[in-house]
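Researcher: Here's my situation. A collaborator sent me these components and asked whether they could plausibly form a single complex. I don't have experimental data yet, so a predicted model of the whole assembly would be a useful starting point for our discussion.
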Amino acid sequence: MVERFFFTKPGDSNLQESDSITLLSGPPSCGKTSLLFQFAINSASRCRSGNSKVVFICSRRRLDTRPPYLSQGIDPGSDIFQRIKMKYIDEGDDEGIKKYFAAFHLNDTLPAAVIVDDFGDFFDERSCQERYGNPRGRDLALVRTLALCHNAIIHANKKGPCKLLLSDTRHGDSPRSLFIYKRWIPTIFTVKGDGSGSFRLQYNNYPGNGCSNRTRIAKYSVAFQYLFLEGITEEGDER
Amino acid sequence: MSASNLVAESVWKAIESTHSVNEEQLSVLHFLFGKNFEKATRIVDQRGVKKIIGEPSGRSILQVVGESRRKEEYLCFADNYCACYSFFYDIINRGEQLCCKHQLAARLAESLGACVEVKVSDEQLAVLLSEL
């Protein structure tokens, strides 16, 4: 499952179908945007229909300040980038996100994937509090928007595969709003630094559902301004 | 998914398959959801669940009438969202309940085919959803 965030060769059978809605959570500057961008490239490459596209939603200011690093082996001039459509929404403009997903069913052709980078940054504490007249205004806004995103994607999947991938920055051990995200997002990947400049990306597999507890962990680096997968290991015991 | 949710899902699917509910199913749902389910059945009996369907996409949202005198209407996705106070504070924040009464009413009405259906254009639906 972690393979979907890294460069894969065409026909690579390791790239399993991902869940409809996924969250990638990690500390600042761990390469989340780069991972998301590679996911976009992988999704665009796998589109069977020539009209299919991938929509990448982010803040233009952030992207200009910290553009994603490509993986080695990716040609920046490749035609695949024509299939990735950038949609810029200002930080703090959660209404912009809501409007996009409220109108999602109006798309003539639904995208194969929608990626939203730094999802939490679109929700400004003060403006949400003022809008809702409630000190928990930001959480209220997050709940409403996630419900709308979920509904949009689940409806879209009745017509064809359509994935939603969000990223959120974690300050501390867990994302600030994890208890809210978990309500709508079944698949959560987390990134942690390994103390030596590299990062570990893993899927948060919750035990007790009868599945194997083995989890695949991808160790990667962005130290040399490209996304480099150092290796994938398996950890945990079979149950 | 929790055990309660799994049991509830199987009951909802059984109701949906026949568009009818029997005493045993009512009893199970009452056991799982308590007084909220009682209130939900009253809302459904009073035809308080509206399904707003966008055409031609088929995307929809439910609107459920509250029980207070003011008769507020709450926008709702039956399985995971309601605009009411209880949904946010009791369910999301405290995790004390599985569903609010409006979600239960929505789910029950949908399963029974007892929603009042209102068809709107996809554009009108988009405007409504943006105001969630």
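Model: Some features of this prediction you could bring to your collaborator: The first helix of chain A runs from residue 32 to 46. The two ends of chain A are 19 Å apart (CA to CA).
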